[in-house]
Amino acid sequence: MKKLTKRPNATEILDILNGIWVDKRGIMAIAYCGYSIASKHFNNIRELVKNETGKETPYGLVPTEYVIKYFDINIKYLKKISRN
Predict the structure, then answer these.
(1) How far apart are CA 78 and CA 84, in angstroms?
(2) Between 35-53 and 64-71, two packed helices, what is the crossing angle to 10 degrees?
(3) pTM exceeds 0.85
(4) Of 23, 38, 40, 63, which sits 20 to 30 A from 4 (CA to CA)?
C-alpha cells in the first residue's frame, strides 16, 4: 500500500472512526503515514488492547475506541470543524 496522497479532512476521519473496528488503511489515513508506520501503530494498539483486556483482536482490525485513545483524537472538535 502506498502513502495517501491527500491529507484526510475532519469528515473523512469521522467516517473512518464511525465503525466498531479500524484496519491498517484507516490508521494510515488518521496518522497520514505509510504502511510500515501504520503497521507499527496498529501493533502498538493491539498490544494496548491485549494488556488492558487480555483479549486478542480480530485479524487485521483494532477497536475504534483504542484508536481514538492511542492518537488522542478529540471527536467533539472534529464534529465542530466538519460542520463548517
Answers:
(1) 10
(2) 110
(3) yes
(4) 63
Closest CA to 69 of 55, 40, 48: 48
> What average pLDDT does this structure show over 15-28?
96
* Domain boundaries along the sequence of the chain: 22-83
pLDDT score recorded for residue 57: 95
Judge contact between 24 and 66, C-beta under 8 A. no
Helices 24-31 and 64-71, packing angle to 10 deg: 30
- Cα(21)–Cα(38) distance, integer angstroms: 15
DSSP of 35-78? HHHHHHHHHHHHHHHHHHHS-PPPTT-EEHHHHHHHHT--HHHH
Query: Could you tell me if 22 and 41 are in contact, meaning their C-beta atoms sit under 8 angstroms apart?
Result: no
Q: Dihedral sign, CA of 72, 55, 21, 1?
A: positive
